[in-house]
Amino acid sequence: MSRPDPWQALATLTAARIALGRAGNSLPTTAVLSFDVAHALARDAVHQALDVDGLVARWREMGGVESLVVHSRAMDRHTYLQRPDLGRCLDEASAAMLLARHLPDAPDVAIVIADGLSATAVHENALPLLDALLPLLDGLRIAPPVIARQGRVALGDEVGAVLGSRLVLVILGERPGLSSPDSLGAYLTFAPKIGRLDAERNCLSNIRPAGLTPAAASVKLAWLIRAALARQLTGIGLKDDSEIHTLPGNPGGV
Q1: CA–CA distance from 174 to each of 39, 42, 71, 199, 207 (Å)?
Q2: Which of 126, 131, 110, 230 is nearest to 185 (CA)?
Q3: What whole-number distance in Å separates Cα of residue 110 and Cα of residue 200?
Q4: What does the alpha-carbon distance between residue 237 and residue 240 come to, in Å, rounded to a whole number?
């Protein structure tokens, strides 16, 4: 017979697997099945293909004029998961296409949307994040967003360098947890170039409705972007003080 866990009230406050109850010396069937479903959702998020056409169409519906589609050197998902280094570099065709772009002015911000380790997170949260963020970047020169297949964070270093951008924002799916297959990450790197270290980036994690909402994340990102451009740095030297400091002359105190 299954017995309720005395911590059951705490389970309403967190998505963590606590207060699962007992059935003899084992977990109740419901808890086991729930774990299996969560595990399947996490695996699906990792292996799901990025819907590039859908992202491009939705971007146009948002009023976006143009987007650029690129591919890393990891030509399929199997290779991408086994060779992280290939996901950090553009393939030759993509690099040539970006080099051929003639932007009228060097952009302040280049935006890269990549599948990362959860296409689910990108499909659900990337464009809502940009929809909330872009109005807060009014006055800055924003390059057409780059949508990358089989891309990792460092791919943005090459993209930003090729486009001549002062700063690059990489938005991609994070490694899924068993309660968060839809978690999005956002990484900022000032003066992007190949070889940048993780210590030279700022990161916002767990962007999703059940975590840091896209609306809340957009405010933090806008503050960090403006602070990075003003101070000419990102990484360990730039702290997120958006809740206690404002940058003068920016709408909404951002």
Answers
A1: 15, 11, 18, 18, 9
A2: 126
A3: 17
A4: 10
Ordered alpha helix ranges (H), 48-83: 52-61, 77-82
Q: Is position 1 within any domain?
A: no
Q: Is 33 a domain residue?
A: no
Amino acid at 152: R
β-pairing, 22-23 with 2-3?
A: antiparallel
Cβ atoms of 142 and 195 closer than 8 Å: no
Tokens 């070889």 found at: 195
3-class DSSP assignment, residue 177? strand
Nearest CA to 2 among 34, 37, 31? 31
Looking at residue 1, its pLDDT comes to: 54
CATH number of the domain to which 180 belongs: 3.40.50.11240
How many residues in total does the chain contain?
Answer: 254
Domain count, the chain: 1
Domain that holds residue 223: 50-253
d(CA 173, CA 189): 17
Residue at 11 is within a domain: no
Residue 36 placed within a domain: no
Confidence of residue 25 (pLDDT cuts 50, 70, 90): confident
Contact in structure between 220 and 213 (CB atoms under 8 Å): no
| pLDDT tens, position by position, 111-140 | 999 999 999 999 999 999 999 999 999 999
